[in-house]
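Replying to the earlier thread about multi-chain prediction with a worked example.

Input:
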Amino acid sequence: MKNSDASRQGAAVPRLRRPWRLAAWFALATLSVGAGYGAILPGAGAALAAAREGQGASSRPDRILLTWSGDPATSVSVTWRTDTTVARGLAQLALAGASPRVEAEAKTVDALTEPTEVVGVRGVAGGMMKVHYHSVTFTGLMPDTKYLYRVGDGERWSEWFQFRTAADGPQPLEFLYLGDAQNDIGPLWSRVIREAYATAPRARFLLHAGDLVNQAHSDEEWGEWFSGAGHIFAMIPSLPLPGNHEYADYPPQGWGETRSRRLSVFWQPQFTLPRNGAPGISPETNYWLDVQGVRVVVLNSNEDVGRQAAWLEAVLSSSPPRWIIVAHHHPVFSSARERDNRAVRETWQPIFERFGVDLVLQGHDHVYARGTAAPAAQVDGGAGRGKIREVGTGPVYVVSVAGRKMYEFQDDGWSRHGADLHRWAENTQLFQVVRIEGNRLRFRAHLATGEVYDAFTLEKRADGAKRLVEEEPEVNLTLSSAPAGGRLSLR
Ligand SMILES: [Fe+2]
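Result:
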């Protein structure tokens, strides 16, 4: 969405052989059928209904989401939705204090209101509905300062939400990274985003690595995504990027019109993101920003990879801070059967290596995988520590998955290209907490249940070369302890 500028107001468990996997899945399926859905998951029906209740727009603001579109130290953007009866959206902002007398202190800002026709609305004839998306960018804010805001129309308001602006310049930074949500977002992705928030409630932002939904233009699925996260999205800025499932034919089938594959009709109305991407790439799908001494670069692996290469080189060579994080959907090294993102690997990977990118965060393959482009000398770190590797100046590549869909892990996409795979998992929902402080970056991949499954620290020297120090994970799951009863392989 364009901004309404309010500057005035400113593991080493052996892989299970296929018969075992099938047997495990069959056992689970039998249990599911025999016991009944409700019997295994008490209250599942009610939870599902609750997860989906946000679909019908009303005059009350919903789908409230913070993002950044400018400097995270001095601005924040908020986007929300109402029905078309709300012609003028408003947002109010105040410095956060413990006094409940907020209203008198608050400044009011007019929103940019965009009528949007959306499709795939459950319970609406033809599935089509006109709604209003509203957005405000609060600018001129003080760094590292807690504010309160609410959105509405002057009569009907949301609750007051608190957020903190980023610090100005290098400061310890923690953020969350999530792989694909995509399927059963209400029933099964919701627990991951909530556990992530419980684990890192002071995370400065949420990075969503694509395939946020399965059907790009489905209002129902976007409704589940917003309801699943609830107030978390209104408190911590999100940095989303599109996966292949954010693109689909439009208009929907059966309308008798010419259809073409396009970015989700919801993307630009509901996300207010930096418009500083490569020319010719859909705005707000490819962008960069600096936050607390870290450059975050978001690429769109669905659109012209070559066009983004020159842009990427320019972004990485213009006075980058000490740490550089890149994110895109289709992985450089594929981890699932018959997958290969050759253009991404051949075009972008050499740039990542040349400019000393530190982490490349990806999705798409519905497994967990972590490694580097080339093998490195390693030593055993000793008791309580894992392996230590001198990984040079290039990045650590990570693929992860947050949602329900799972694929079988394949290592060919790494081995064929000489890459060094360090750790992987399948049939496992995860979220990741990244903490950067000084010359150290700590990465922790957590299971949906919270335990640390993979952990390492990158120690960066003055010449940009890094030492990767693994920590012993909290869990090394085996089949007998696999929560889903299915295959769970570690190394
Ligand atoms: Fe994907």
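Residues 5-54, 478-491 have pLDDT under 50 and may be disordered.

Feel free to reuse this layout for your own posts.
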